[in-house]
User: Which sequence fits this backbone?
């Protein structure tokens, strides 16, 4: 194979898109021609710089086989040259194929960079659900514990109460007059344990009814917590697992009732 023809195969060789015969011809040229090796190194460096932008993902198993099958089919329908014809060269097709693959790779990398790596957005509690019935159930129990909801400067009209089961293992907050949210905002509940560690309690929005009920996700009895509270956050919640980024909305201090 002529030197120029080997050069035209290098982009596809760098992407692993050649059949066995073409790969062998390129590798023979690589073994004997330092210029071919240098050009291949440039192709491989360009591909590596793209891949380094994002975490690697394994390509579908069928991708390489499909591409090679299409190339083989194309060669099968191309008539061989007659003695009076010059061998048909296809530098433009190879370059376009290599460029298309690089564009696809780059588009995939950009998509990965734009997406958060936790693949699903955190769920948002609608604000009522089973919380209302659990609140009523706990409120009717003898020995239930009660705590006041304290507003912050963000909205001094917020009010409500926290009710806890006598055993201290279930709790619901009833809230009224929460500040209105825009479509790209959400409330985030926080629990502060006895060691002072802040724990994400989930996202919620105000209910369309008069009151919003939030079941507190207790991982320990109530006496293992110092306080609860909520912050105003962007739609996906705080980017940090242990601290808010927005202003406080209310707090509940877990002192002796």
Assistant:
């Amino acid at each position: 194979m002529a030197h120029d023809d080997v050069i035209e195969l290098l982009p596809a060789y760098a992407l692993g898109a050649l059949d066995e015969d073409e790969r062998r011809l390129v590798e023979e040229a690589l073994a004997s021609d330092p210029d071919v090796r240098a050009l291949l190194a440039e192709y491989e460096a360009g591909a590596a710089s793209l891949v380094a932008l994002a975490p690697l993902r394994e390509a579908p198993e069928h991708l390489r086989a499909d591409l090679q099958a299409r190339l083989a089919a194309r060669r099968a329908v191309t008539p061989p040259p007659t003695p009076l014809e010059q061998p048909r060269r296809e530098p433009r097709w190879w370059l376009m194929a290599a460029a298309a693959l690089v564009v696809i790779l780059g588009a995939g990398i950009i998509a990965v960079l734009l997406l958060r790596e936790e693949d699903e957005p955190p769920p948002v509690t609608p604000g009522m659900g089973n919380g209302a019935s659990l609140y009523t159930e706990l409120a009717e129990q003898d020995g239930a514990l009660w705590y006041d909801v304290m507003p912050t400067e963000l909205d001094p009209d917020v009010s409500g109460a926290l009710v806890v089961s006598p055993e201290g293992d279930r709790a619901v907050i009833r809230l009224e007059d929460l500040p209105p949210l825009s479509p790209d905002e959400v409330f985030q509940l926080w629990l502060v344990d006895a060691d002072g560690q802040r724990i994400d309690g989930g996202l919620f929005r105000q209910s369309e009814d008069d009151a919003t009920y939030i079941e507190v996700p207790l991982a320990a009895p109530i006496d293992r917590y110092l306080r609860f509270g909520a912050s105003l956050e962007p739609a996906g919640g705080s980017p940090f697992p242990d601290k808010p980024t927005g202003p406080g909305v209310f707090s509940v201090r877990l002192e002796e009732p």
About this structure: Residues 51-64, 81-94, 112-118 have pLDDT under 50 and may be disordered. The chain is about 35% helix and 20% strand. Strands lie at 124-125, 145-148, 150-151, 159-164, 171-176, 185-193, 198-204, 211-215, 225-234, 248-253. The helical segments are 3-14, 20-32, 34-51, 61-76, 91-114, 131-139.
